[in-house]
Amino acid sequence: MNDNWKKIGVSIMCKHDFKNHVTIIKICRQKQLNALNKEVINSMEEALDYVERESKIRSAIITGEGEKAFVAGADIKEFKSFKKEEANFLSSVGKQKLFNKIANFNKPIIAAINGYALGGGLELALSCHIRVANTRAMLGLPECKLGLIPGYGATQRLPMIVGFGHAMEMILTCKMLNSEESRRIGLVNHIVEPEELIKKCLSIAQLINKTSPESLTAAIKSVNSAFSNDGDNIETIEFGKLFETENFKEGTDAFLEKRSPNFNR
Known about the structure:
four-stranded mixed beta sheet, seven-stranded mixed beta sheet, globular, 2-enoyl-CoA Hydratase, Chain A, domain 1
């Protein structure tokens, strides 16, 4: 790989390796643990549009800047004051621009999980077609501790990947899994040492290069169709409803004030 990075917006960097037919997309909000916000989502959409158009690129790798986090969730400050309609729009647009776009992308996308992948960060990884984690990675969905549920596809994708029981436990208990446990339940495909993470993803990309582009597109579409239902829309509606509950306000207040929430039972 060369060291020529291209800036997308102000939060995304891309490295195009035309010789190996792969692009690395890096989320660059290291001080915020690469948390997702509107700016990141829009920039990611722009980067993916480029990958989609560029015939020399056969696959993409998504990772986070630094050693601590892949993506440690969504930026709560950005949506804390939302009501139901705004929340529904947040979920729908985020899925359209990024999460569903990745899941239904016409080229394979690999998540290189280099640290915390929590909330929206895990949902981003779940949208990818293959997940590789380093030995320091921690994965989880803490939304229920905020008085919410995952709103970017996890209630639909996680059961498909790890099974109903594991998905329910992860979402309802908000527990974090280390890389070994994540591999055991099938949440990640591979675990490697931190310094080997991108190298492992590139080795997978090299295998992808040996296949037909049209076959890849058809395979992705076909595998995804095995799980089609109305759950995606139901998730968005339920996600929006929760923005008008007192426990959502309490959960987000507690998070921002760095204390344990005191929910109404």
